[in-house]
């Protein structure tokens, strides 16, 4: 049968998409060291997660001596029908206590629940033992007052009405309406320094972080509770920036998120193997913005207007491994979907938990095209069918690309590339040189990181600290915490 006209096929696709309105908003959001990360949502979909729809909704809610690297052991998976976000284990205070925190490249502070919190969960549906931070229980801890330099630097000057001994407060609101408020403290952070091939030893540094005194929305729920959030953004308040300023690490980190076995690699340091090609970061942006130049499907370049690729306020392209799905401006979304399904006009779409899904019995990699995003300096991101579709039952596949216009007014012109398209790739954030790059990689293997003090290179292995859980490739999600810093903080 001859293919129907382009306009007719677009109408069919739009009819299938019409009911898929989502109430979510994509982002506006001595030696090496290691942190172990796992997923936030339980693999069995329990803990009150609410299935794929709830996981999907989380996406839009939601930023001395030079160490060669730090190893952050990871756990979890990265697909929309499984567990949720990746998290790691850190230790704070003296004596050190363990805290499970989400790793989030879209936010800029580390915070943990405080013992004085009136809405902080005491238990987790994930089966984790939660710990409330007690400033008085640590011999190395101290409260940051509003007249101290950290507070003034955070807020761009001394706060009005600030007097000695008044705590420096913080307030963060996330895109779903959940929030955290509290005050800043300074204490010892313990992490794993890489000291040899696959070997680490404890390292520590003094860091300033938030002591959460009140949580709102989902952050106050025990269903998928963690102890806090570890922001890996670019701001001076992030743990990475603080460690770098103290001469502890280079301002470079990398992750490799494994959707095959779970977990992966997350390390701070100068990655020397494998080599990755890079593209410049757009300067003076709050997120990891890059210059997208074109998109092609099956080798055919989409004919898109120039304004689609412009960078500015509320537009541009953001790389964020904290987001599960990929969000595209409506015009781009329609063109991509049209080209992807052009040779499959017999497919009937169905709404499954607010996803656009379809039955398909063959291999999606054999039956559908590769999508390639082209960036400045000739860096390409190849997205294969199994990375933009995800299985959701027997022979049922759902689309991992989303129409940004249906998410929020502020995000409608943003290209937000999330975890589905970044998984199984080594992604390097080199803030020293203001570039970001990636390469297809086996995230169950290892990478090599250089110790700039000794010149030695060390192997950092993959981890899955959630390996005791049962994970399946077709049931995972990484949630983006899109941050809007309220009160005195500026997004």
UniProtKB/TrEMBL annotation:
Cystine bridges: 357-398
The entry's keywords: Aspartyl protease, Disulfide bond, Glycoprotein, Hydrolase, Protease, Signal
Pfam families on file: TAXi_C (PF14541), TAXi_N (PF14543)
Signal peptide: 1-30
Gene Ontology molecular function: aspartic-type endopeptidase activity
Domain Peptidase A1: 86-439
Entry's Gene Ontology BP terms: proteolysis
Active site (UniProt): 104, 320
Family: Belongs to the peptidase A1 family.
PANTHER family, per the entry: ASPARTYL PROTEASES, EUKARYOTIC ASPARTYL PROTEASE FAMILY PROTEIN
Protein name (record): Peptidase A1 domain-containing protein
């Amino acid at each position: 049968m001859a293919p129907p006209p382009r306009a007719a096929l677009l109408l069919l696709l739009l009819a299938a998409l019409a009911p898929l309105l989502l109430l979510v908003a994509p982002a506006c959001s001595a030696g090496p060291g290691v942190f172990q990360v796992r997923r936030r949502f339980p693999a069995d979909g329990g803990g009150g997660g609410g299935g794929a729809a709830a996981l999907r909704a989380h996406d839009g809610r939601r930023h001395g001596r030079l160490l060669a690297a730090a190893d952050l052991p990871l756990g979890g998976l990265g697909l929309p029908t499984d567990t949720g976000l990746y998290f790691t284990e850190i230790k704070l205070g003296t004596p050190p206590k363990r805290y499970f925190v989400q790793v989030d490249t879209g936010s800029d502070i580390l915070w943990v629940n405080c013992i004085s919190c009136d809405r902080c969960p005491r238990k987790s549906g994930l089966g984790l033992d939660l710990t409330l931070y007690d400033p008085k229980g640590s011999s190395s801890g101290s409260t940051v007052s509003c007249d101290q330099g950290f507070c003034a630097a955070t807020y761009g000057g001394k706060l009005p009405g600030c007097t000695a001994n008044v705590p420096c407060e913080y307030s963060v609101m996330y895109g779903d309406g959940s929030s955290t408020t509290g005050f800043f403290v300074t204490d010892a952070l313990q992490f794993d320094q890489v000291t040899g091939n696959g070997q680490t030893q404890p390292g520590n540094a003094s860091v300033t972080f938030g002591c959460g005194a009140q949580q709102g929305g989902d952050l106050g729920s025990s269903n998928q509770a963690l102890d806090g959030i570890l922001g890996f953004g670019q701001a001076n308040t992030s743990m990475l920036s603080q460690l770098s300023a103290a001469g502890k690490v280079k301002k470079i980190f990398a992750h490799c998120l494994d959707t095959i076995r779970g977990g992966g690699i997350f390390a701070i340091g100068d990655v020397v193997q494998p080599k990755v090609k890079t593209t410049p970061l757009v300067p003076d942006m709050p997120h990891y913005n890059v210059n997208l130049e074109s998109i092609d499907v099956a080798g055919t370049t989409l004919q898109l207007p120039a304004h689609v690729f412009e960078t500015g306020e509320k537009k541009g392209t953001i790389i964020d491994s904290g987001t599960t799905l990929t969000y595209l401006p409506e015009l781009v979304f329609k063109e991509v979907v049209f080209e992807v399904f052009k040779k499959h006009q017999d497919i009937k779409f169905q709404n499954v938990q607010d996803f656009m899904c379809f039955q398909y019995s063959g291999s999606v990699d054999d039956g559908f095209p590769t999508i390639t995003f082209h960036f400045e300096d000739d860096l390409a991101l190849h997205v294969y069918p199994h990375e933009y579709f995800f299985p959701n039952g027997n022979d049922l596949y759902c689309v991992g690309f989303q129409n940004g216009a249906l998410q929020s007014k502020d995000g409608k012109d943003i290209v937000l590339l999330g975890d589905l398209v970044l998984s199984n790739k080594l992604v390097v954030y080199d803030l020293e040189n203001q570039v970001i790059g990636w390469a297809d990689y086996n995230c169950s293997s290892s990478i090599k990181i250089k110790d700039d003090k000794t010149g030695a290179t060390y192997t950092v292995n993959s981890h899955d600290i959630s390996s005791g859980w049962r994970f399946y490739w077709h049931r995972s999600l990484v949630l983006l915490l899109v941050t809007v810093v309220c009160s005195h903080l500026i997004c």
